Amino acid sequence: MFETKNDLGQTTREKSIELLNARLADSIDLQTQVKHAHWNVKGPNFIALHKLFDEVNGAVEEYVDEIAERAVQLGGVVQGTARSVAQRSTLSEYPASAVSGSEHVAALSSALAAFGKVARKGIDQATEFGDLDTADLFTQVSRDVDKWLWFVEAHGQAKS
Predict the structure, then answer these.
(1) Could you report how far apart the first and last alpha carbons of the chain are, in Å?
(2) What is the separation of C-alpha 53 from the centre of its chain, rounded to a whole number of angstroms?
(3) How is the chain split into domains, by residue range?
């Protein structure tokens, strides 16, 4: 850890940095899954889903940056390489065989829901450590992920 004049205790900062790096792995994994869907979606709803997935990607990229920067603010070192992410992510593997819009909607809905769940768990963990700013960051992220989950799930909820 790097020295900082941040007034959170060292133990709190260490725990928060570990938590942030864990969620960073998940958020980077989520971002690559969203981009995979954006590139590979096919079918009659192609353009709507292609554009939606690109918007979701932009939002997730912001989470990646905010989570990483919070870890650095606390004196931490960010663990954001592809290899580190592959080892640490808690998200399920994205189905490489997904092609249709409905397959990507189902896969991304699952990924967004899983990420929202771990972000909400992060709120509780950071609160327990006494790092309310990190808890607030995860609150913001989880609220936003819920919105994107709603947008994506809506494509699979209507009966034709």
Answers:
(1) 55
(2) 14
(3) 10-157
The answer to whether 107 touches 125, Cβ cutoff 8 Å, is no
Phi first, then psi: what are they for 63, rounded to 5°? -60, -45
Supply the DSSP symbol for 45: T
DSSP 3-state of 135: helix
| pTM exceeds 0.90 | yes
Homologous superfamily (CATH) for 10-157: Ferritin, core subunit, four-helix bundle (1.20.1260.10)
Q: pLDDT tens digit string along 92-145?
A: 999 999 999 999 999 999 999 999 999 999 999 999 999 999 999 999 999 999
* 3-class DSSP assignment, residue 6: coil
Residue 9, amino acid: G
For 68-88, write each residue's pLDDT tens digit.
Answer: 999 999 999 999 999 999 999
pLDDT at 149: 98
Which residues neighbour 156 within 8 Å (Cβ) at sequence distance 6 or greater? 102, 105, 106, 109
